[in-house]
Amino acid sequence: MHGTQAGKHTLFGQKPATEPGSGGFSVKLAAMDRKQHWDAVYAEKAEDAVSWFQTRPETSFALIRSTGIAKSEALIDVGGGASRLVDALLAEDFSDVTVLDVAAAALATSRARLGKDADKARWIAADITRWQPTRRYRLWHDRAVFHFLTEPADRLAYRRALESGLAPGGTAIIASFALDGPKRCSGLPVQRYAPETLAMELGPAFTLAVQRHEAHTTPAGKIQRFQYSVFRFEPET
User: Fold this and answer.
1) How many CA atoms lie within 13 A of 17 on its CB side?
2) Residue 76 pLDDT more than 60?
3) d(C-alpha 200, C-alpha 46), whole Å
4) Among residues 17, 100, 167, 233, which one has the fewest Cβ atoms lying within 10 Å of its Cβ?
5) How many CB atoms lie within 10 A of CB 46?
6) Is 10-233 a CATH 3.40.50.150 domain?
């Protein structure tokens, strides 16, 4: 779940051109401190020990398939980190998959797990609130990045990246803690949403098409309640 200066990004495995940042999380820390926070989380805990771990991201994958996206079309998993969504997509022959996360340690975990198949995906280490997409994606997936943006300026920056990175007519799938979900995660505060309040936050260019709720069981056996919202992006021309 889940850094560079504005307008910059680094492909994983290459030397960063600029200082990485936070992956979009508003914790009122310097960019490097935010990066260090998430790198430390993945360095200190095993992939299957973090609270958001899913053996198979069934809800996300089902919603992606339900959009009718062609397997050759571009999609991006924002805050994908060590998530196994990329595994499921590649196994189903999706051929244009990008994973973006601030934590290089999380991306390294996914690449190691995938082995030679890792080269079938694109990997970007970047702060979503500072990242400027260089292409458009047909589908944007985010499970639990946006809800960490408790500062209005960070949410605005995220929306700008979303609007410039998502193709008109494309689909955004954004999952967050629901209104009855946790108030904090990984020691950080979160902003909880209902699908309707999330739609208001994103603005009129995004039409709520599908909503779903999920009771996620953490590795520690606790229940975290999520909402998943599917939006059609129809900007004014």
Assistant:
1) 9
2) yes
3) 36
4) 17
5) 11
6) yes
